[in-house]
Design brief:
The protein is α/β, with parallel strands linked by helices. The protein has one domain: Response regulator (Rossmann fold, 3-Layer(aba) Sandwich). It contains 5 helices and 4 strands, in the order βαβαβαβαα.
């Protein structure tokens, strides 16, 4: 298990679905113990379905303002977690001038799912839950109990 990082940057294509969801999940779990931020390769408005599925778990993304790698004013992150191939490429470029750990969690692009509202919402929930499971696997459930070296909870 990893120790809790001081800061994590999540990255995806547009900073509208995957990376804001990941940022929101980190803030929900770890509060101010881990600084979390998110960026995209390009910017787009926050996706209303992402807002809806995060609202289901008590996280408000409605005020999220998208930004790109170029918009970052501070690049001193312990980890950059890329959620798409394009974001991974941009993260690798960024690390040419900074030192941090890179992680790649290939994550479904829920915006590509077609169907009725229920099917689309389920795709967004699947993305949320997959990212949540990755965070649990990396840092441990229950706000980082395993990550700090404490006993695993049953």
């Amino acid at each position: 298990m990893a120790r809790l990082p001081g800061s994590v940057l999540f990255a995806c294509d547009h900073n509208a679905v995957r990376s804001p969801i990941a940022e929101g999940l980190m803030k929900l779990r770890f509060g101010d113990r881990v600084y979390a931020d998110s960026v995209g390769v390009r910017c787009a408005d926050i996706d209303p379905f992402a807002v809806a599925v995060m609202d289901e778990i008590g996280v408000d993304l409605s005020a999220h303002k998208a930004k790109t790698f170029g918009d970052l004013t501070d690049t001193s992150f312990d980890y950059i977690v890329s959620l798409s191939p394009a974001a991974q490429h941009s993260a690798v470029e960024l690390t040419r001038t900074m030192s941090c750990e890179l992680m790649f969690w290939h994550t479904l692009d829920a915006t590509a799912v077609r169907g009725n509202r229920d099917a689309i919402l389920q795709a967004y929930r699947d993305v949320r839950d997959a990212i949540s499971a990755k965070i649990d696997s990396w840092l441990g459930p229950e706000g980082g109990t395993k990550a700090r070296g404490g006993p695993e909870t049953p």
